[in-house]
Amino acid sequence: MSATMEDTADISLEDARELLIDLVSIPSPSGEETEAAERLVAFFDAHGREARIDEVGNVRAPADDAVLLTSHVDTVPGEIPVEVKPADETDVEREVADETGEDVLWGRGSVDATGPLAAMAAAAVRTGVSFVGVVGEETNSRGARHLVEDRDEPRAVVNGEPSGATGITLGYRGFLAGTYVATSESGHTSRPEPNAIQHATNWWTGVEDAFEDDEYTAVFERVTAKPVDMNGGISDDGLSVEATLDVQLRIPPSLDAESVRETAEAGLEIGTVSWAEPIPPVMESPRTEIARAFRAAIRKEGSDPRLLRKTGTSDMNLYAGVWDCPMVTYGPGNSDLDHAPDERLSLAEFDRSVEILARVATTLRGGDD
C-alpha cells in the first residue's frame, strides 16, 4: 500500500516520549498485550492514521511499504517501578544523559523492546510508512509468524530491538529447540546398567562434545548448546525410570538447522528427540539500500555507525526466512539490560533514534532528507 504526503503527521519528540512512557507503564508480558496494543491504536488514530488489532493481537497500521517498521509489543514478566530520574554515576547511559542533560526512564520493557516500538510508531506516523507491533516475541513469535503468512512482502524491513542509537544489527544466530525422552526399567541402584537419567546426560554430553569449538572461534560463528530443563525419576507405578531433557541450540549462519539436528542425533542410541520448528540464522549485507540509509542517518546525527551481529535470535530471523527484501534490526537501548532487574533507557538516546528512523524512512520513500 502506498502513502501520500497527506498520510504523514507532525510528531514531536514530546509526543513520542509520552507514548513511550505510557507503554512502559502498561504491563504487557507475552499473552497480555491487549491494553498496550489499544494504546498504540489510539496513538495512530489521534494522528490521522488507520490502525487495527488483527486476529492474533498484532497492531497493524499499513501505509507506504517502502519500509515496514516493526517491533514487539510484549515484554518478559517482572515489575520495575516506572519513573524518570537523572542518570547516576553507575548508569550505563550516563554519557548520553550528561551530553544533553536528559534523564533516564526506568521500567520493564523500556529497552526490550518498548523503546524501539515507540520510536518506530512515532517515525511511522511522521513519515507515512507502514508499521506493525507484533505479539508473542518473547515466547513463540506467534505475531511475526502470522504476519509473514498474512501480508505481502514490503520493500524493506526494520525490526525493532535494542542496538543503541548508533548500532545497526545485520545478523542473528538461528534457534533449534528439542525435547529428549527416555525410559528404562527400574531396578536396584547397585546394578551397573545405566538408567534413563544417565542415558539423557550421556546423550547431552555427546552433543556438547560434538559442537565444542576452540576459544578463538567467535561466539557468533559457533553452535551454542544449552540444556534448559530436566525432569527424571521413578514412574508413578514404580516400574520404570523416566527422563525428559529440554535443550536449545543456537545456529550460526554458516550452518542450517538440518545439519545441526543431524549432528545432535548422531550419537543418539537410546531415547528419542522431538524437535520444534527451527528459526533459521540470518546475516544481511552491509551494502543494501537500507543499511546505507542507516549509516547516512547516523552520521547526520553526528555519530559513527556500528555494524553488529547478535548471538541470540529475533523476529528478523523469521522475516528473512520468508521475505526476500533487505532488512536490519535497530532500536534505542543497551541490550545488556534486556530482561534485567534494572532495565532503563536514556531519553536522549530515544530521541536520537526517532530522528534516525525518520531520516531512514524518508530516504527509502524517495524523499529528500
Q: What is the topological layout?
A:
Blueprint: H1 13-25, H2 34-46, E1 52-53, E2 59-61, E3 64-72, E4 83-85, H3 94-100, E5 104-106, H4 114-127, E6 129-134, H5 142-150, E7 157-160, E8 164-172, E9 174-185, H6 196-210, E10 224-234, E11 240-251, H7 257-265, E12 272-275, E13 282-283, H8 289-300, E14 306-310, H9 315-322, E15 327-331, E16 344-346, H10 347-364
Parallel strand pairs: 3-6, 3-7, 7-15, 8-14
Antiparallel strand pairs: 1-2, 2-6, 4-5, 5-16, 8-13, 8-15, 9-11, 9-12, 10-11
Summarize the structure.
This protein has 369 residues and is of the alpha+beta class. 32% of the residues lie in helices and 25% in strands.
Structural description of this entry:
With 369 residues, this protein is an alpha+beta fold. 32% of the residues lie in helices and 25% in strands. The strands form three sheets. Strands 1, 2, 3, 6, 7, 8, 13, 14 and 15 form a nine-stranded mixed β-sheet that branches. Strands 10-11-9-12 form a four-stranded antiparallel β-sheet, covered by helices on one side. Strands 4-5-16 form a three-stranded antiparallel β-sheet. A hairpin with a 5-residue loop joins strand 10 and strand 11. Helix 1 packs antiparallel against helix 4 and helix 8 crosses helix 10. The N terminus is likely disordered.
